[in-house]
Design brief:
It is built from 3 helices and 12 strands. It has 230 residues and is mainly beta. It has 2 domains: 56 residues, no CATH class; 146 residues, Alpha-Beta Complex (Nucleoside Triphosphate Pyrophosphohydrolase). The protein is globular. The C terminus is likely disordered.
Length: 230
């Protein structure tokens, strides 16, 4: 992924490749800029993913905290185990409708079985993020959505077991969009046998009662201020 910083007046502040395990906010800070918000993420003709961020010069901000390298609970690695290095780009949608917030339950193929998150998933080769998130939402919930703006870029870095049983040094880069569903129906998981076990609409006034993953709970606390999507 190529990260490009754009100033308020459209100037080109910097561009840099996002290394394995790196965070775009830390990358920007180390080049003298603070991230205001993401602008967009698109594919170049070469297939390279380009993330544009609105940035401003650092004034008195402290360096964003780099999250610690994690590990799946209970995972023990022998001296002869060398995790494969994988950087995965994915797109997700925080979807709201007259029925509430669209949520998906992680299946037994994940390390967070029974926990809940937002619909979305990995980008296919040369697939634009906006196309990927529309496809994933349809596959995981059978809902048709209207996609809004890119609102967050979130990263995680850990060593763990993949859905295929292999041990990976895994760097997840998640592009998170707002979206609405104009005609919500009962969600149905169309992509059976994957990482999504079930899906449901959660009333906005009771979203905190759901067993979200830690990352999604933190993010939703930020995005759903006073139990309402802005």
């Amino acid at each position: 992924m190529l990260v490009v910083g754009i100033t308020e007046h459209g100037g080109h502040a910097f561009e840099a490749v996002l290394d394995h395990g790196a965070d775009p906010h830390v990358l920007a800070f180390d080049r003298g800029y603070a991230v205001v918000h993401p602008l967009d993420a698109n594919r170049a003709s070469s297939g390279e993913l380009i993330l544009r961020l609105l940035v401003r010069p650092v004034v008195d901000e402290t360096r964003p905290e780099s999250r610690r390298h994690g590990r799946d609970a209970g995972l023990v690695l022998g001296d002869d185990v060398r995790p494969s290095v994988r950087q995965r780009f994915a797109a997700y949608a925080v979807v709201t409708s007259s029925r509430g917030l669209l949520a998906t339950e992680y299946s037994g193929r994940t390390a967070v079985t029974g926990r809940w998150g937002m619909p979305g998933g990995g980008l296919d080769d040369h697939e634009p993020p906006t196309s990927a998130v529309l496809r994933e939402v349809a596959e995981e919930t059978s809902q048709l959505i209207v996609l809004g703006e890119l609102i967050k870029v979130q990263t995680s870095h850990w060593v763990g077991r993949s859905p295929y049983g292999t041990i990976e040094d895994f760097h997840a880069v998640r592009l998170i969009y707002r979206a609405t569903c104009l005609h919500p129906t009962d969600p149905v998981v169309l992509d059976q046998g994957g990482t999504t076990e079930s899906a449901q609409w959660v009333p906005l006034d009771s979203w905190r009662s759901v067993s979200w993953t830690k990352n999604w709970r933190l993010l939703l606390s930020e995005l759903l201020q006073d139990s309402s999507a802005t």
